[in-house]
Amino acid sequence: MDIFLMPGEYFVGDAQYRVRTLLGSCVSITLWHPALRIGAMSHFLLPGHGRRKADRPSDKPGMYGADAMQLLVEGMAQNGVPLAQCQGKIFGGGAMFPRTDKVRDIGTQNGDYARSMLQQHGIHVVSESLFGEGHRHLIFTIRSGEVLSRQVPPEPGWGSAGAKTA
């Protein structure tokens, strides 16, 4: 069965699922337990924590990286999955507009934050596809643990304001 994650959503399931999403500056973390064939995937927009519950609409509980990670951890625990035995993968953090040397853009912040969260939880990162320009299409097949990632560069002629130039 196919599941499509929108920004701020997450999913935990077994081998019958394949999870898809589309990332720009957002980041997805996948967790996978090879023996149990249970996996989890997030799609978060911002690093850090939501300040108040009011900041997190109930239909988008994983908007912030720390909140999304906590949801993944809880979901895996509910399925009896020991985090130390999981494989972690990180994707996204792309630049949707030209990067400047002066500012650490949100995609870079998201990617760095995802790395630190996995490290804090003792989860071994086996693969990552972070940063660069444009957006990514992801497909996570929980049965195999495979994550297909295709990065699509921005169209030529798009300027930093997002308007197409002639």
Automatic annotation (TrEMBL):
The keyword Lipid metabolism does not apply. It comes from the Bacteria. Transmembrane segments: none annotated. GO terms for molecular function: protein-glutamine glutaminase activity. It catalyses: L-glutaminyl-[protein] + H2O = L-glutamyl-[protein] + NH4(+). Coiled coil: none annotated. Gene3D superfamilies: 3.30.1330.200. Its EC number is 3.5.1.44. CDD domains: CheD. Keywords: Chemotaxis, Hydrolase. Pfam families: CheD. GO terms for biological process: chemotaxis. Belongs to the CheD family. Probably deamidates glutamine residues to glutamate on methyl-accepting chemotaxis receptors (MCPs), playing an important role in chemotaxis. This is Probable chemoreceptor glutamine deamidase CheD. The lineage of its organism: Bacteria, Pseudomonadati, Pseudomonadota, Betaproteobacteria, Burkholderiales. The gene is cheD.
